[in-house]
Amino acid sequence: MATHQSAIKRNRQSKRHALRNRQYRSTMRTMIKKALDAKDKGAAEKLVRETVALLDKLASRGVIHRNTAANQKSRLDLHFNRLT
């Protein structure tokens, strides 16, 4: 167990950040699933746009790696472009 005041604070922050990051990742996964399940091109466009914005935000915050965000965005674009 941490005994220095700074280590105790860092432990509290770490737990809080881990919880927040878990919520972000859960939201990200849900949005990706919704975007990939969309069949209508109009609805899919809106979902893909929102999901890409979230992926960029999470990558810039360090929640996910920037290459992971790029791979997911590419996957979403492929799906969107295949819709009729």
Keywords:
84 residues; mainly alpha; Methane Monooxygenase Hydroxylase, Chain G, domain 1
SSE inventory with pairings:
Layout: H1 5-37, H2 41-61, H3 66-82
Helix pairs in contact: 1-2, 2-3
Can you describe this structure?
There is one protein chain. The protein has 84 residues and is mainly alpha-helical. The chain has a single domain, classed as Ribosomal protein S20 (Methane Monooxygenase Hydroxylase, Chain G, domain 1, Up-down Bundle). It has three helices and no strands. Helix 1 packs antiparallel against helix 2 (41-61). The longest helix is centred in the first third of the chain and has 33 residues, at 5-37. The chain is elongated and about 60 Å long. The N and C termini lie far apart (58 Å).
Outline:
By secondary structure, this protein is mainly alpha-helical.
Q: Compute the number of helices.
A: 3
CATH class division: Mainly Alpha
Shape: elongated
CATH superfamily: Ribosomal protein S20
Low-confidence stretches: none
Percent in helix: over 70%
| Domain module count | 1
| Average pLDDT metric | 95
Terminal-residue CA separation = 58 Å
